[in-house]
C-alpha cells in the first residue's frame, strides 16, 4: 500500500479514536460480568467474579465461585485498561463515586479503542478492494459514524471487540490468499481465533473463511491444505483453550455456563429474521440506515469480484442467520441489533465500490443517506439507553414491547430522552439551574448510576456532576477531543483530494 494511503489510514484511526473517546460515557450498561473477570485476573490471579452478578445459579462453578459464561477474549483484552484505571486511582488518589468507578470507566474505554481499530481495518480492506484512498476513507467513516458501532463504542459490551476480530480476521485471510503471503493468512487466523475467544459462535466466521480459502486456492487441494493449516492452527488453539477454560470452571469442556439457563436456546428463525430486519426495537436498517444501500451494493461487488463478494456475503450471512435463530435474537436489554454489530463492517464493505465507481448522482444520494444515518446515531450517543427509563419516569418494559412496540423501542425512547436531556444539561452546565443532589453509593446495586439518569452520557459531564471538575473544564475536555477528531478528518479530506483516483480492472474468478 502506498505511503500516502497508509498515512490516510492512520489519520482515520486518529479521528475515530478522538471522537469515540470524546463521546464515551464509561458505562458498563447492562453487562458487567466481563469486567468482573478482568478484575479477578488482576486482583486475585483467577477468573472468578467477585459476586453473583446476575443472581443466576447457572453461573456457579465446580469450586462454588461464580464465572461469566463468556470466552476469555474480552476479559483479557480489558486487563491493560483496568490496570491504567488502577494506576490513576493509586497515583492521583482519585476516588469517584463507587470504589472502582475509575477502573470501570478505564475498562470501558477499551470499547472505544476497539471500535476505532475496527474502522481502521475497514479502511485497509476497502483500500485493497478499490485501490482508491478516497473511497476507502469514506467507507471507513461510514462504518464509524453511520452505524450502531458508534453508540456501542461507549459501553462495556464486547460488540466492538467482536467487530474488530471479525473484520481483521476476514481481511487477513482475504489478503493472504489474494497476495500469496502466508504470514497474512496466519495473522488472519490469529484474529479469527481471538474472535472465538470473544464470542464462541464467531467460530462460524473461521468455518466460512476455510470454505472460501478452498475456492480462492482454485479448488486445488495442496494450496487449500496450506491455507487451512495457516488459518486453522490459531483457531484450533483458541478452541482447545476454550474447552480447558470450560473444564476448570464448570467441570465439562462443553459447558460454557450458557447450557444451564435458557438464554442461549434457539427459537423461531422466521421471527428472528423479521425482527432483525424491520422490528422497531432491533431493525438493522432502522438503527443503521446506511446498511440498506450496502445490501444493494453487494450486486456491484459480485460483478467486480465474485470471489471476494462471496466471502463478504458468507460471513455476514452466516452471522445474521445464526443470531436470527436464537430465542433472544434481540440480545435482551440492548440498543438496536447489538449482536449484528460484529457483522456490520463486513456488511458495509461493498459500499466501497459505489464510493469508488458509481455515477455522481448515486454518490450524492449515498452521501445524503449517510448523513441521515449519522444523525440517526445521535440519540444512542447522547443518552445511555440503560438509563432512559429513569429519565423518562418509565417502569419495567417487557421484552415483547421493546421488540415490537414503537413507543417502547430504544430509538424512540432515546430520542425522547435526548430531547429532554439536552436543554436540561445546558442549563445545569451554565449554572442556570442546579442539578439534583447525589446520594452516596450503596452496596452492589445500580442505584448510584441511576442517579445520573438526567445526564448526557459523556464522561466529562459526569465529572462535573460529581463535582470533580468545574463545568468549563469538563466542556473543554470534550471540546478538545472533538476538535481533534474534526482536525484529523479535515486532514483525511485534504489527503484524499491530493491523491489521484486509480481505476482498477475487476478481479473475477
Brief overview:
By secondary structure, this protein is mostly helical. Helix content is 65%, strand content 0%.
Overall description:
The protein has a domain at 383-468. It is 65% helix and 0% strand. It contains 24 helices and no strands. The longest helix has 30 residues, at 101-130.
Helix content: 55-70%
Order of helical and strand elements: HHHHHHHHHHHHHHHHHHHHHHHH
Q: What distance separates the N and C termini? A: 23 Å
Mean pLDDT metric: 90
Radius of gyration: 23 Å
- How many distinct helices? 24
Main structural class: mainly alpha
- How much of the sequence lies in strands comes to under 5%
| Major β-sheet profile | none
Any low-confidence stretches, pLDDT <50, length ≥5?
Answer: 504-509
What is the overall silhouette?
Answer: globular
Strand tally, please? 0
Features:
single chain; 509 residues; mainly alpha; disordered C terminus
Strand and helix layout:
Layout: H1 3-23, H2 33-43, H3 73-77, H4 79-92, H5 101-130, H6 133-146, H7 149-152, H8 159-179, H9 182-198, H10 203-216, H11 221-250, H12 269-278, H13 284-287, H14 291-304, H15 306-324, H16 344-348, H17 351-357, H18 360-382, H19 388-392, H20 399-404, H21 410-430, H22 447-450, H23 459-465, H24 471-497
